[in-house]
Write a structure and sequence with these properties.
This protein is an alpha+beta fold. It is built from eleven helices and 14 strands.
């Protein structure tokens, strides 16, 4: 899969990032997302594959593109009969977030990315559009920290695993009312808190790399993005756990269904009979082969954002594979017109 699709999926996230970055700082988060979706889908439909979106632009919304269940790939072309033989194509499941951190793009803030994860059919958990309690940590703490433990307990474990004092640890938490007690506990334990407004996929993945100065992600975010994070962290060998949150009273902000009881019924209809189950990265991304790709829209801890120059742009992307056990950073120059002298700054 990596040999067949590795470069292709990099180009998918690059095109989405470039399209969205043109709207950076313009205060139009919906447009920044829409153009990313369109660019991602257009490039995806040129790939010789049989793809199915399992996490996309909205389970309940009438999303016109990259909606859950949509078929993507070369066979969706109007002239499919002349360009593809479905029986010869690889069949994969795809999780996408064409613009992770729409507000970050709209207001010119760091950390937004175009991201996707792929696996063979059935290899990614089809998470409902609920919320998820998440815990991400570096590989050294894998299987030692636990989402059922308190933040204080997990910080002590992290301190031991990383051979750092708790005061040296940095925990990323989304700035939400629901996290007030969590933030207070982390600070009282002695660790430092890095608050983010959006985009916890990048924060989770940063835990998998040394030198990012991010040692954990804690708190509640969107469930679909949790699956994408889990795919990357599984390939990196990092720790990731997620637990679905179905009670609107816990989330406090954001849409999460009509009621706790209705949400439990909805989960049962999706064959999720234990709504409180804690999933690890291997359960959320269970496929034999996992590929993750991201391209920076605005600059963050891991990647530079899109940088435009006359008649072109420069992107930085990341592709992670559990097949080759690699994490590759890809720096690309995109020429929009006739080839000219490349601008490297």
């Amino acid at each position: 899969m990596e040999n067949t699709l590795g470069l292709e999926i990099i180009e998918v996230v690059e095109q989405a990032a470039i399209a969205s970055a043109k709207w950076m700082g313009k205060g139009e988060k919906n447009i920044a997302d829409q153009v990313a979706v369109e660019a991602m889908r257009e490039r995806m439909n040129k790939i010789h594959m049989r793809g199915r979106i399992v996490i996309g632009e909205g389970e309940r919304d009438d999303a016109p593109m990259l909606y859950i269940g949509e078929e993507v790939g070369i066979c969706t072309q109007p002239n499919a009969e002349s360009v593809c033989n479905p029986d010869e194509l690889i069949e994969i499941d795809i999780a996408v977030d064409p613009c992770e951190g729409t507000n970050l793009v709209a207001y010119g803030q760091p950390g937004s990315m175009a991201v996707l994860a792929i696996s063979e059919k059935g290899g990614l958990f089809a998470a409902p559009d609920f919320y998820m309690k998440k815990l991400a940590a570096p590989p050294a703490a894998k299987g030692k920290v636990d989402i059922n433990k308190s933040a204080t307990e997990n910080l002590k474990i992290l301190s031991e695993c990383l051979d750092r004092s708790i005061e040296e640890l940095v925990v990323v938490v989304m700035k939400r009312e629901r996290h007030n007690d969590l933030i207070k506990e982390i600070r009282e334990a002695g660790a430092r808190v890095a608050l983010i407004s959006d985009g916890d996929v990048g924060a989770a993945i940063s835990c998998g790399f040394a030198g990012t100065n991010i040692h954990a992600l804690m708190g509640i975010g969107a469930a679909p993005e949790g699956v994408i994070s889990a795919a990357a962290m599984r390939a990196l060998g990092g720790h990731f756990q997620g637990q679905l949150i179905y009670d609107p009273a816990v989330v406090k902000t954001g849409l999460i269904g009509e009621s706790r009881e209705a949400n439990i019924d909805r989960l049962k209809s999706m064959n999720i009979n234990d709504p409180d189950k804690v999933y690890d990265a291997h359960e959320l991304a269970s496929g034999k082969t996992i590929l993750f790709a991201a391209s920076g829209i605005t600059s963050g801890n891991l990647m530079q954002g899109v940088r435009f120059f006359k008649d072109g742009a420069r992107t930085q992307s990341l592709v992670i594979s559990n097949q080759s056990k690699t994490a590759r950073f890809v720096d690309t120059i995109h020429l929009f017109g006739e080839p000219k002298v490349l601008q490297l700054n």
